[in-house]
Write a structure and sequence with these properties.
Keywords: Plant defense, Repeat. Helix content is about 35%, strand content about 15%. It is of the alpha/beta class. Among the domains are: about 160 residues, no CATH class; about 150 residues, P-loop containing nucleotide triphosphate hydrolases (Rossmann fold, 3-Layer(aba) Sandwich); about 180 residues, Leucine-rich repeat, LRR (right-handed beta-alpha superhelix), CATH 3.80.10.10. Strand 27, helix 26 and strand 28 form a beta-alpha-beta unit. The radius of gyration is 31 Å and the shape is globular. The chain starts with a strand and ends in a 15-residue tail after the last strand.
Length: about 850
């Protein structure tokens, strides 16, 4: 038996079992009803209150509906439910009678500016409302709404009653640890603190310089067998970063735990629900890691503190937070560990290296024990001749220590960028990595699209991948393959490839971009967060925005032939969803929008961006972002590539010059290709490449897609609910490549596929529900390659013997046995069985 809550004017409520739990909800509603009835009496004289009352009763109506849904679960007396519904309906009728006396008021009300409510007191002769009464009503109704919020919170608690927490694995812990040395002692200290049994909350602080290995140590802790043995699946790892988004963190945690994600009205509201969720884990040890916490975020960390036994919070930061107790300080590596780490990343062998030992030790000396500096410098010098090593030592001898501050570390790392001078394109590509938000994975396909237009790299992605591998080898970026598919080898556009940057490396890329004056930069990076704006010159007060934008416009006016920025990156949240109207970037060829808002409206200035070629819109919030004014893009004459990530796709309208469209984790696919006043062939006359990936709500491919006759490449991958393709797919007469991999619910391929006479490649890997291929499959006379790993239950028609140009089938052993039966009749056929770890871990949602 426990207290639920205590509110002024309300009796103390006690939960005592299932029936009493329902009675509690009923009692709460009765109290809210009593307060509304009191307000109704005032409402008879105040017309303003009627609209507020309607809204409140509407909220209460939804609460009663939820209580009805819980009826079967809680099994309360049926007469209580019936009585409650009748009382609610009676109140609704009463409200309708009151409001019906002056219906004209509600037609007129929306025309009044709501933000001028205080002026009503001075206009009583016009609207007949008493301001004092309105204020009293609003105060009373705020109490009602607070009760309703608490009812919702109690409803959620009841849904969790008796339900075991569905967390199945740790959340957010990085999987791949690089080569690590010298962390045994700090790891032992951390384990001692974390494994200590305590009856209350314990906050542990880990501090160290940027690049000293804090994240690596925290990851190693979470992967330790003793730690996993104690906390099991209750290990939660979040990257806090410079601008933490509490709602987004808690939303993703709810999703990971398998519960429906509530709609949080604020950070405070989200934290209330987080406590309810964590209480569900109460009784089992819980470890929460908040990585990369910046100064000023201490109060946010404190909001995660709930008094629970064996609840540990590990905070990593570059600064020491004394309010969390004495921190564990991560010291620089010792000399021996430095040498081991450096030799590993420089690929030096004592016996075969031509670099003198004294020179190696001289270089390592300037790294001052920072693992990040060691990795970058070692990889940049690996395989380089003696002269480059000697030049590097001379340059370092003129600089400062890399140990003192991040600025000095930048000074050191910048000296090693001279390795990129021999290939300016690689250096430009490195600086492009700063265009994407901190602590976020960068999709490789987005880079390939951008670099193809900016630097003329080949469209198949091979040259771009060579650059990415070069940056990875220098430790300037880490290439992450989320899941390896058998069909990835010839297609780098797969969304399984990502780049991950250390935050200091990202700052280094931004710092390189900032070397030129503002009006001469090739890239303009704008970060908007609440009351601050960052134009790469440091944080700027919101009031300076217009001055900076005027300066940019003046620069262009003074020298109209000068291009101030070929690439524009804007990161924004709900506080400011548009900035293009201030700077008018008419010269930009690439626009990257990094959103943390549920709605974004393209400004009218988009029509003036005549040189824009690539548009990349990514939503980093939990809910899909809705785009407004998308039709403006139809006027951008050079726009050839669009990528939308986690977007509620709007009606795309007419995009006459678009060649490539990528939709990743998007929703409302049917709306995107619906046939309205503009027919689809007319809307996309030049579109040759369409990619749809991880679109969870797509059950059937929109028929409108089949009317885009110029298409040569169609990729529909990881759309797990997709069950079938329309017969109209035969309209895609120019289609050369069709990828359907990992569409796990796909049950059949239409027989009309046989009319795709130009189809050369088909990928149906991991389509585990596909039962067979149609007889008409044999009409694909130009088919040269098939990927079908994980399609063991898919039966082959005998007519496959007519596929005379088929060269390669890549599949698993079981599927290979089916093809071997036709091998004698297909003399050019080669069956390949790749040696990969095929599992179903990729079925889980991609974050």
């Amino acid at each position: 038996m426990r207290d639920c809550f205590k509110e002024e004017g309300c009796a103390k409520l006690v939960l005592m079992g299932d029936t009493t739990q329902f009675v509690t909800l009923s009692t709460l509603f009765q109290e809210a009803r009593r307060m509304v009835l009191e307000v109704l009496e005032i409402g008879r004289k105040s017309k303003r209150s009627k609209q507020i009352l309607r809204s409140t009763l509407k909220d209460m109506n939804s609460v009663v509906h939820e209580i009805q849904q819980f009826n079967e679960h809680l099994n309360p007396p049926s007469e209580d439910i019936i009585t409650l519904i009748r009382e609610k309906d009676a109140d609704k009728d009463l409200m309708c009678k009151i409001c019906s006396r002056n219906l004209w008021w509600f037609n007129f009300l929306p025309l009044l500016p709501l933000n001028k409510a205080r002026s009503w007191h001075h206009k009583k002769e016009y609207i007949g409302a008493d301001y004092k009464q309105v204020e009293e009503i609003k105060h009373t109704l705020s109490k009602v709404r607070e009760i309703l919020e608490r009812i919702n919170l109690e409803n959620f608690k009841l849904t969790l009653k008796g339900v075991s927490a569905p967390i199945k694995s740790s959340f957010g812990v990085p999987e791949n640890l690089e080569f690590v040395v010298g962390l045994e002692e700090p790891l032992s200290k951390l384990k001692t603190e974390v494994l200590r049994n305590e009856h209350c909350l314990s906050v542990i602080s880990l501090t160290g310089l940027g690049g000293s290995g804090k994240t690596t140590l925290a990851t190693k802790l979470c992967l330790d067998e003793e730690v996993k043995g104690k906390f099991k699946e209750n290990i939660l790892f979040f990257i806090f970063s410079q601008t933490p988004k509490l709602k987004s963190i808690i939303e993703r945690l709810f999703e990971h735990c398998g519960y429906q994600v509530p709609e949080f009205q604020s950070d405070e509201d989200a934290l209330k629900w987080l406590e309810v969720l964590l209480r569900k884990i109460e009784g089992s040890p819980l470890l929460l890691v908040l990585d990369d916490v910046w100064p000023g975020s201490e109060t946010l960390v404190e909001k995660f503190q709930f008094q629970m036994p064996n609840y540990k919070i590990l905070v990593t930061s570059r600064v020491s937070f004394t309010r969390f107790g004495s921190p564990i300080s991560l010291k620089p590596l010792g000399h021996e560990d430095q040498m081991i780490l450096f030799r590993h990343y420089a690929h030096l062998e004592k016996s075969s290296s031509s670099i003198p030992e004294e020179l190696v030790q001289e270089v390592v000396k300037y790294c001052k024990g920072l693992p990040l500096a060691i990795k970058v410098i070692a990889r940049s010098l690996g395989q380089q001749p003696y002269e480059i090593w000697q030049k590097t030592v001379e340059e370092l001898s003129c600089g400062h220590s890399v140990l003192g501050s991040n600025t000095e570390l930048f000074t050191c790392l910048q000296k090693f960028l001279h390795v990129l001078e021999d290939n300016p394109i690689i250096k430009e590509c490195f600086m492009d990595l700063g265009l994407f938000p901190e602590d976020q994975r960068i999709p490789v396909p987005a880079l390939i699209d951008m670099w193809a237009e900016l630097y003329g790299l080949d469209d198949d992605g091979k040259k771009a991948m060579d650059i990415i591998k070069k940056l990875d080898s220098m430790n300037l970026a880490n290439l992450l393959v989320a899941r390896k598919n058998t069909s990835d080898s010839d297609n780098y556009y797969h969304n399984n490839y990502f780049l991950v940057l250390h935050d200091l490396i990202r700052e280094l890329a931004i710092n390189q971009n900032s070397q030129d004056s503002l009006e001469k930069r090739k890239r303009l990076i704008i970060e908007i967060n609440e009351n601050k704006v960052d134009l790469g010159l440091g944080e700027t007060p919101q009031g300076m925005i217009h001055l900076l934008s005027k300066y940019l416009r003046w620069s262009v006016k003074q020298n109209p032939e000068q291009v101030p920025a070929r690439t524009l990156s804007i990161s924004t949240d709900e506080s400011c969803t548009s900035y293009l109207s201030h700077i008018q970037p008419v010269q930009a060829e690439v626009l990257i929008l990094n959103l943390r808002t549920q709605k974004y409206s393209f400004p009218e200035e988009m029509e003036k961006m005549s040189k824009l070629k690539v548009l990349n819109v990514t939503n980093y919030g939990f809910h899909p972002s809705e785009l407004k004014n998308f039709k403006l893009l139809g006027s951008v004459s050079n726009l050839t590539r669009i990528r939308l990530d986690r977007i509620s796709v709007p009606h795309l309208g007419k995009l006459p010059n678009l060649k490539k469209l990528s939709l990743y984790m998007c929703s409302n696919m049917s709306r995107a290709f619906e046939n309205g006043t503009i027919q689809t062939p007319e809307a996309f006359p030049t579109l040759v490449d369409l990619s749809i990936d991880y679109c969870k709500d797509m059950v059937k491919l929109p028929t409108g897609v089949c009317n885009i006759t110029p298409l040569k490449k169609l990729s529909i991958t990881n759309c797990h609910k997709l069950k079938c393709l329309p017969q109209e797919i035969s309209n895609l007469e120019n289609l050369e490549s069709l990828r359907l991999s990992s569409c796990t619910d796909l049950q059949e391929i239409p027989d009309s596929i046989g009319k795709l006479s130009n189809l050369g490649l088909l990928d149906i890997s991991n389509c585990i529900s596909l039962a067979d291929l149609p007889e008409e499959f044999s009409n694909l006379r130009n088919l040269r390659g098939i990927y079908m790993t994980g399609c063991a239950r898919c039966e082959l028609p005998y007519t496959v013997v007519d596929l005379e140009n088929l060269k390669v089938v890549t599949c698993d052993e079981e599927t290979a046995a089916a093809w071997e039966a036709f091998e004698a009749m297909l003399p050019n056929l080669k069956i390949e069985i790749p040696r990969v770890d095929v599992n179903l871990n990729w079925l889980h949602a991609v974050s």
